TrEMBL record:
Residues 309-331 are annotated as: Disordered. Residues 53-119 form the TGS domain. The keyword Ribosomal protein applies. Signal peptide: none annotated. Belongs to the mitochondrion-specific ribosomal protein mL39 family. This is Large ribosomal subunit protein mL39. It comes from Drosophila gunungcola (fruit fly). One of its GO terms (cellular component) is ribosome. InterPro entries: Beta-grasp_dom_sf, Pro-tRNA_synthetase, TGS, Thr/Ala-tRNA-synth_IIc_edit. Keywords: Mitochondrion, Ribonucleoprotein, Ribosomal protein. The keyword Membrane does not apply. GO terms for molecular function: nucleotide binding; RNA binding. PROSITE patterns: TGS. It comes from the Eukaryota.
Length: 331
C-alpha cells in the first residue's frame, strides 16, 4: 500500500469520526436548547400565575369522598393524591375531572372540580388504557433516539393516535437508508431502552405553548416544523408538548404520570412504509406492552407479541399532513 493510499484512508477515517462527533454534538446541543426553552416557558407560566386563588377539589373514590382546598393553576391531581395516601400517589396513572375530562396527573388544576384518580384496575379502563398506549408511543420515540447511532440520521416523524384494538402502539421515523431490515438483536436493544426508561420512573410533564415557541424548539426537525402550523391552526395557535427526562415531543395527550407505569414490553416490528427522497425511507416501529404489575404467562404474551407485528391500520406518515388533522396533535 502506497503512502498516499495510507494517508487517504487515515484522513477518511478521521473525517468520518469528526462527522459522527459533529452530528452527535449538534444533536445534543439541539436537545439542550429545546429543554432550556421548555424550562424557561415553564417558569414564565408559573410566575405569571400572580395572585393564588383557592379552589375546592371534591375527590370521589376510596377510602372515602373528601373535599380538598387546593391552589388554582398550581396544584395538580398528584398533589391531591399526596393528601390522600402514598398508595394513591403510586397507583394513580391519570385523573378524571368532573366525571368526563381526562387530565394529566402533573397538570395544574384551573378551577373547582370533582376529581377521580384512575389506575389500571378501574371498572372502565378504556380512558386510562388509551393514555397508557399513547405514553408508550411517546416513550418509544425516546428509546429510538437512544438506540440509534448518530450516523443513522434518525428523524422522529410522529406517532398516530392510540388504537388499542390494533394490538400495537406505533412511532413513525425516517432513516437515511432504504434497506434497513432489523435483526432480532436490534429489536431487543430498542426494547431494552424502553425497559430502562421505565426503571428510571421519569415524571411526564405537559406544557402548552404558543406556536412560535414550538417552531423555535423544533426548528431543527424537518417533519415537526412542517406539522406545527396545521396543529396550531386547530388549537387557536397553541401547541401541547410533553417531556420526560430530556425528551420532548408534540402530543395532545393526556398521558400517564410517569414512565414507571410501563411493565413488560416488546418492540416487535419495524416496517418500511415508503421511500423518502433518493436515500431515506419512512419506517413504522410497533410494539406491545403491559402496565407495571400486570402478570401474563409467556404463551399469552407471545400471542400479543405476534399480533403486534401486523401492520398498524393507522394513517401512514407519508400521506398528506392535512388529512391527519384528526389524529395528529399527534394524539
Amino acid at each position: 500500500m502506497s503512502a498516499a493510499t495510507k494517508l487517504y484512508k487515515t484522513s477518511w477515517c478521521a473525517l468520518r469520526q469528526l462527522q459522527q462527533y459533529r452530528t452527535k454534538t449538534n444533536f445534543s446541543a439541539s436537545i439542550d436548547k429545546r429543554n432550556d426553552l421548555f424550562n424557561q416557558e415553564q417558569r414564565r407560566q408559573r410566575d405569571a400565575v400572580g395572585r393564588i386563588d383557592k379552589i375546592e377539589v371534591r375527590y370521589l373514590g376510596l377510602p372515602e369522598d373528601v373535599t380538598l382546598v387546593m391552589n388554582s393553576n398550581i396544584s395538580t391531581p398528584f398533589n391531591c393524591a399526596q393528601h390522600l395516601s402514598e398508595g394513591h400517589c403510586k397507583r394513580s396513572a391519570l385523573a378524571l375531572i368532573d366525571g368526563s375530562v381526562p387530565w394529566d396527573m402533573h397538570r395544574p388544576l384551573q378551577e373547582s372540580c370533582t376529581l377521580q384518580l384512575l389506575n389500571f384496575h378501574v371498572s372502565e379502563p378504556h380512558v386510562v388504557n388509551k393514555a397508557f398506549w399513547r405514553t408508550c408511543s411517546f416513550m418509544l420515540g425516546a428509546a429510538l433516539n437512544r438506540a440509534f447511532k448518530p450516523e443513522a440520521n434518525l428523524q422522529l416523524h410522529s406517532f398516530p393516535g392510540p388504537n388499542i384494538k390494533s394490538g400495537s402502539f406505533v412511532h413513525d421515523i425516517v432513516l437515511q437508508t432504504q434497506t434497513w431490515q432489523p435483526s432480532k438483536e436490534e429489536m431487543r436493544a430498542i426494547s431494552a431502552e424502553m425497559v430502562k426508561l421505565a426503571a428510571q420512573d421519569l415524571r411526564i410533564e405537559r406544557l402548552d405553548v404558543q406556536q412560535d415557541l414550538a417552531q423555535e424548539m423544533f426548528k431543527d426537525s424537518k417533519y415537526k416544523s412542517e406539522q406545527l402550523p396545521s396543529i396550531a391552526q386547530q388549537t387557536q395557535g397553541r401547541v401541547t408538548l410533553y417531556r420526560m427526562g430530556d425528551h420532548i415531543d408534540i402530543s395532545r395527550g393526556p398521558m400517564v404520570g410517569s414512565t414507571g407505569f410501563l411493565g413488560k414490553c416488546t418492540i416487535s416490528a419495524a416496517l418500511k412504509v415508503a421511500e423518502e427522497g433518493p436515500a431515506s425511507a419512512f419506517y413504522r416501529i410497533q410494539g406491545v406492552a403491559l402496565p407495571a404489575g400486570f402478570q401474563l404467562n409467556h404463551v399469552a404474551f407471545g400471542i400479543l407479541e405476534e399480533r403486534s407485528k401486523k401492520p398498524s391500520p393507522a394513517r401512514l406518515p407519508n400521506e398528506p399532513f392535512e388529512e391527519q388533522q384528526q389524529q395528529l396533535q399527534l394524539s
